[in-house]
Structures are given as C-alpha cells and as structure tokens.
C-alpha cells in the first residue's frame, strides 16, 4: 500500500466522492466553455472520466447544454491489447451517451499519414527513437491531440482540458503541477503553457495510486465497461502506469511498466508486453511484435555475436554513412572522430517491412478474435512508404507490392504509381549483376538511368541537370572509408596550412 495519506481517509469513501462530484458540477455549470477529457483507457483517465460522467448524471437535462469531448490518441503502434480495449470502450460509451442523453462525444485521434511511425522509419529511414532523437512523441501524440484542442478552442474561444495527472506519480510531475498552479486565474484551473485559451483541470491531482484503484473497484463504471477487467489487464502486464494523453514534451514517455507503443525503444525493455506474454500462454501471438521491437533496439545489436562495445551495440551497420540529403558529417576529434550515420539503408527498411507484414499475417491467423483484423501498418501508410521509396529515394525497383503479396498471400490493393520508366525488376536485376561484375556502384547507375528515363517522358532539361547534380553530389564518396580518408586528408592539409601561417607571423 502507498505511504501517502488516502484522500478517502478523513471523510470516508462516499462523502469524498460526492464532494468531487459537486466540485465538477459547479465548474461545469459556471460557463459554456466546452470540456475535453483525455482518455487513454488506463486507470487514471478512466477514474477522471468516470467522475465526470457520474457528476453529469446528477444534473438535470436542461443543464447539459455544452459538449464533453472524450479524446484518445491512437499512435497506430499502441499495444494491441490496450488499443482494442480503448476502441471498445469508445464504442460502448458512445452508445450509452446517446441512450442516456449525456453530452459525451468520443474521438479517436490518429497522426497524419506523413507523421506515422512506419512512414518515418520504414519510409524515410529515420532511426528508431532514442533519448537524444525522440522524434516520435511530437509526431504521433502531441500534434494530433493539440490540433484537436486548438480547433475546439478556436471555435469556442476557450476550452477546458481535463486530465488524469496526479502529483503522487513522481516528484517531477508534482513540481510541474505546482508550478502551473501558481499561474491560476480561476479556482481549480491551470492555464496551459502550450495551448492558448485552454485551461487544464486535474480532478484527481491529490489521489494516490491506491485511491484510484479503490475508486474504480468501489464505484460502478457508468458507461457499462467492467473495471475489474481493467484491473486484470494491469495485473497481467505490470504493477503500475498507463500511457497518458501527451500534450507537451514535459509529459514523461510511456516507459518501463507503462502501457504504450509496442515499438518503443526509448526504454531498455518493454516490460508490459513481455509480462503479458509470460503471464498468459494465450498471448503468444504477440511474440513477433516483441521480436520486431527488439530488432529495432540499438542497445541489443551486437549481443548475439558477443560484442559489447558501444560501436558494435548500435545500429550503425544498418544505416547509410550519408545523411538524409546526401552529405557526410563527422563528429569528435582525434581517435574519436567518426561519421555521423544517416537513415536506414534500403536493405534494412525492406527487412523491417517484411518482418512487420509477416507478423501481421501471423497475428491474423493465430491471434484471438479481437485482433483477427489487425493492421500493424495501414494501406494508407504502405502507399506513402511506396511513394517515398520510388519518388523521393529513387528506388525504382518498387519492391513494396511484391513484399506485401509474399508476406500476406494476396494481391497488393494499392493504386498504380503513375510513373513511367523503361526498367522493370528484371532489367534492374541485370543492371545489378553487371555492376557487380564491373565493380561499379549499382545505386549510382540506377539513379542516373532513372533520371534520364524521366527526361524522356516529362522532365525539362533544367530539371534533369539539377537531378543529375544532386545524384552526383550524393555519390562523391562511394563508401564510408573513402569519406573518412578524404576527411583526414583535408584536416592534415588544414593543419599544415595553419602551421605555415604561424611560421610567417613569427618571422
């Protein structure tokens, strides 16, 4: 049990809950400002939504004039068990709200297709997220929720965002909430630091972890879900935590034992998914997901070969030595100087797409009924990945449809690319073999031939020249070794020139 004093200690459970309900009713009736409730499906957000639902049930129908938006952000890489739970909960609460006349409207938010995890990782080649390159949170979570809140705020002039944040979660969270409290202009409402016109309300900010569970077990879920099932889900996965609605970068990552993205590499281990598999033999269907997650983890690379140095235990071997725009960058000095690796190579991206689609097929065939139709990557994402590969990266092999058909055993449903080229896979295979025989760089030859074929169909002379210059600049160095040698030569030359100038000054 928690060492913190329970909020129910002084006045008992029933009186304390009613006091919270009265506070919510009073605040709700003060104005016409719409409410937005962040709902992740976990214990804290469930407790908050349940309190609001119970409070509004006590109000007369004529007082329920403003809307309460219930939002969940689906990153499209959520733990499948939790994702199914949240989706079902939204469906049930929407039906119940319509039946009872309560003003709840549920919304499941997703990132734009250009911002999804797989479009960035498999499509563009972004390396798996890590503490110093946490590109996922902003794209997958903050932008979808913030855009919704901004839209509601702009329409109404103001909004109230209700969150399940609690001071007892951590000392950092307590300090952050205390800092925002000092800026309050209305009782119980803290202004958002990143969302103008939006005030934040945290009804259970003083509750302990035990208080939350006590409330959920004692108070019946008002929209018809079973809170005991929620407890069972937590017990099967971990001892604490949910992945909260993220509206700014101060919100902690869903790490360690928290429910969150099944691909998360910001933490050393996905404890929740691992525990689910270990605690329940019927969840073996999740093993391919855990394998993919671990294959993305730069910390684990090199362990199978017995290598334990920082260089070996990284994903450098899977990444291009050039940066995204084709240039080569270095970091460090002396013996520590090295190339800063760029995006994942074509082979690495192809491999992860195969693993992902094969895992999807495995789950659809062996998983329980609630995941029979699971899409680990949507057709919209596949179409964007394909577009990036062919048009932005010039990978005219157009491997994606064949990878899809091989992994899933059915025809790829995507649209025709609408690109004209003289070369099919057979031609490109011949080119690759020829380049290997002549020790010529296949990618360079492929890209030049692609540019010249486009010129025949639709490109202007000026565009062709620009494209050729871009390609030739990208392939100035054909290997990392060449780039390193040239860097060393230039640095030696600069050192020599500097020494000569110093000699002149001395003389």
Explain what you see.
- By secondary structure, the chain is α/β, with parallel strands linked by helices.
- It has four domains: 13-237, Rossmann fold (3-Layer(aba) Sandwich), CATH 3.40.50; 271-339, no CATH class; 345-419, no CATH class; 430-476, no CATH class.
- Helices cover 49% and strands 6% of the residues.
- The chain has 17 helices and eight strands.
- The protein has helices at 13-29, 43-57, 80-100, 117-124, 136-156, 171-181, 209-218, 227-237, 271-279, 287-296, 346-366, 379-392, 400-408, 425-438, 442-457, 461-474, 480-506; strands at residues 35-38, 68-73, 104-109, 159-162, 189-191, 198-201, 330-331, 338-339.
- A six-stranded mixed β-sheet has the order 3-2-1-4-6-5, sandwiched between helices. It has a two-stranded antiparallel sheet with strand order 7-8.
- The termini are far apart.
- Residues 239-245 and 252-257 have low confidence and may be disordered.
In terms of structural class, how would the helical and strand content be classed? alpha/beta
Q: What is the mean pLDDT?
A: 86
What's the story with the biggest beta sheet? 6 strands, mixed
- What is the CATH H-level superfamily of the largest domain? HUPs
Describe the structure concisely for a colleague.
Helices cover 49% and strands 6% of the residues.
Q: Which SSEs are present, and which pair or pack?
A:
Blueprint: H1 13-29, E1 35-38, H2 43-57, E2 68-73, H3 80-100, E3 104-109, H4 117-124, H5 136-156, E4 159-162, H6 171-181, E5 189-191, E6 198-201, H7 209-218, H8 227-237, H9 271-279, H10 287-296, E7 330-331, E8 338-339, H11 346-366, H12 379-392, H13 400-408, H14 425-438, H15 442-457, H16 461-474, H17 480-506
Parallel strand pairs: 1-2, 1-4, 2-3, 4-6
Antiparallel strand pairs: 5-6, 7-8
Helix pairs in contact: 1-2, 2-7, 4-12, 11-13, 15-16
